[in-house]
Write the C-alpha cells for this entry.
Amino acid sequence: MLWTKIKEALISALPITLIVYLLALLPWFNFTGAELITFTISAVMLILGIGLFNLGADLAMTPMGTHVGAGLSRQRKLLLLLGVCFALGMLITVAEPDLQVLANMVKTVMNGTVLIYAVGIGVGGFLVVAILRIVFKRRLSGILMLFYMLLFAMALMLAVEDKLDMLPMAFDSGGVTTGPITVPFIMALGVGISGVLSDRRSQENSFGLVALCSIGPILAVLLLGVFSKNELTYTVPDYGVGSDIFGSFLTTAGHTAKEVAIALGLIVVFFLICQFAFLQLPRRQLLKITVGVVFTYVGLVMFLTAVNVGFMPIGYKLGHQISAMHPALLVAVGVVIGVLVVLAEPAIHVLNSQVEEITGGYVTKRSMMIGLCIGVGAAIGLSVLRIVLDFSLVYYIIPGYFISLALGLFVPPVYTAIAFDSGGVASGPMTSGFILPFAIGLCVGIQGADAVLRDAFGVVALVAMTPLITIQLLGFRAIVSNKIQERRAMKRILDADDQQIINFM
C-alpha cells in the first residue's frame, strides 16, 4: 500500500521536477551546483512526503474526522458540537504550518502573532457557521453569496482608506489557511456530521466546510487592514540557498517537526478526548489510526521541509530569471507551471478520492483533476498577466466570484459545495511554497520590490478562485448530458410505440 502511494506521488511530482531540470539546461538560467543539489534532495523528500502523507490521511486523518463528527452529532447536544468545532478550528489553524509561513512573509506589513490568532478565530467561527448549515439544512450557495457580499463591502472600505494593497494578502490568507493538516480532518468531520444529521441531501452537506472556513481568514485580515495604522511596506525575504546544504535541511526539518507536532497533537488530543468520552473505538482500529498519524507526521515534515528548503528558492529564482521574456511566453510558462503544481498538492488527492467515494463515482477523480488543472493553470497565467500589466486584483476577484456565485444558482448543489471546497484545497503548500515565491521573483524582475504586495500577492487567491468556475462547469455538463440522455430515452420509447402501432395496423 505504501509503495502504491509513493508511485502515485512520483507521478504527481515528477512533471514539476523535470521542468525545473529542463529549464536549468537553458543558457539564461544560471542555477548553481548547490541549488541543483538542494532541489534534487528536496524533490526526493517531496515524493516520499506526499506518499506517506496520503497513506496517513487514509489510515488516520479521514477516519478520525469522520468518527469525531459522527460521535459528536449522536450526542444531540448542539452547543457541545459547536463549542468543540470552534475550538478545534481555531487551534488547528493557529498551528497550521502554511499560516506560519505567510505570517513570516508579511511580518513587515502586519504583526505576525495578531494575524495568526485573528485568522484562527475566523476559521473557528466559520466552522461553526458550516456546522449550523448542516444542522438546519440550508443551501450553501445562499450562505456563500451573503458572506462574499460582505467581503466585497469590506474591500470597498479598504479602498476608501487607501489600503487596497491589503486585498491580495487578505484573499491569499483564505487559501493558505486551509492547508494539508486542516483539510483532510475538516472534510472528514463534515462527512461524519452530515452522515448523522442530514437526509437525502447528505451529498451536498458532506462538502462546504472548507469553503466556509476559507472565508473567515479573508474577513479577519480585511478587518485588520481597515483598523491597522502600519505603513504598507513589504520587504522581500532572502530566498538564497546557502553552501551548508545539510545544515539547511537539518535546521528547517527541526523547526517544521515542532510546528507539525503541535498541529497534529491538537487533533490527536481532541480525538482521544472524544474516544474516552463517547466513541469507544476498538483497540485494533485505534492501532491503525496511530500508525496513520505517524505516517502523516513524517510525511508532512518531509514535504514541508522540501518545499521550504528547495522549492521556495528555486521558485523565486525561476520567476526572477524569466522576467525578461516576452509577456506571452511568460503567461504560457505560468499556465504550464500551474497545471504541474496542482498535481503535486497532497490534499488534492484526498479531496478527489473523497468526492468520488461520496458521489458514488458520479464525479470521478479524473474529471476533478482535469477541472482543477485547467482552473489552476488559468489562475497562474492570469496572475502572471496581472504582474506584467500592473493592475489591481479587484478586476479579477469581484467578477470571478460573481460568476462563481451565479453558477451556484443553476448547477446541482453538490457541485457548488465541491467547487468551493476545491478552491481552498488547491491553494495548498505547493502554491504558497513554490508559486508565490515564483510570482514574487517575477514581480521583482518586472515591476520592482515595491510592487510585490500589490501585484505578486493574490496568486494564491486566484488559485483558490478559478476551480470554483471550472468545477461548476462540470455541473453544467452533467445537466446537459442528463437532458440529452433523457431525450434519447424518450425518443426510443416513442419510436418503439410508433413501430408497435405500425405492426398492429
In short: The chain is about 80% helix and 0% strand. Residues 159 and 350 are 38 Å apart (CA to CA). The two ends are 65 Å apart (CA to CA).
